[in-house]
Amino acid sequence: MRTKPVAAASPASSTASIYMALLLLIVTPGTSTADFLLFPTATYEHRANINEAPGMSGHTGGHQDNMLDTLRPGMNLFYTRDGDRLRILAEFMLTAQEGHPERLQIGYRLRPETTIWAGQFHNPMSYWNTQFHHGEYLTTSISHPGMDTYEHDGGALSTHLSGVLLESKHRTGNAAISIALALGTAAWLDMDSDHILQPTNLAKPNHFGHFFASGRLTWHPDPDGPSEIGLFAGHTEIPVDHDPMLSTVKQQTSGLYGNWDNGHARILGSLYVVGNQLI
Predict the structure, then answer these.
(1) Which whole-number Å values give the CA distances from 188 to 194, 203, 241, 243, 254, in the listed order?
(2) pTM score
(3) What gap in Å lies between CA 17 and CA 14, rounded to an integer?
(4) In terms of C-beta density within 10 A (0-12 exposed, 13-18 middle, 19 or more buried), how is residue 265 classed?
(5) Best exposed site among 133, 158, 182, 217 by fewest CB in 10 Å?
(6) CA gap 126, 212 in Å, rounded
(7) Which residues, in sequence order, are bridge partners of residue 271?
């Protein structure tokens, strides 16, 4: 069973503290550029001849004869600030049911193309989530790949991490090599919550999983172009709640991905190899 801190701050006070810290950083004087974007969304989805999927409870509309009608209004708030050294990235998702931080990370630029981040961020293994998760209007028209589905939507991998992230890019002649390394905590599995992963959440200090480590190595044929190919790997220990027969899932993930773009056509894809050990 996953143990929780004996004396943990309440979710409300923890959330307020995080938001206040971010506000202080935002208003801190200094030479920097900042962007604040709002993406209001209203998604209507109609499905026929299916059973209701985990995590789809609380929908609006009808559900009968294996049909599902869902209306999901929401708002995505995206803020970035980029100074000489200090960097901030924050993303909040607001829906009719809840509001939670998707990302809340503070970075320090060690050199022009090397930054170390701390906070809550996306798993660097997933090319899709690191490229296309900035609101509905900045993503592609293709449906979200199943392997990159977020935890709260029924995904099988940890897509949100809390800890430390190092990102670095090194130019070698007419090409470049980049690395991303992450250490921290990831998701946990609650068997009383539709058997789905629960994402790590900085606003709730007792909602953390166990150890997580992941990395991605990428080759860029053009240092400033979109095309790239790379390898990734990760290890996570997922604690399990409310299951007398299972306490932890050790998950090993590896694979490769690629994105080819010549300005007129684009091909991208990923290959995952996932192994789970039940303890």
Answers:
(1) 13, 15, 8, 12, 20
(2) 0.79
(3) 5
(4) exposed
(5) 217
(6) 14
(7) 256
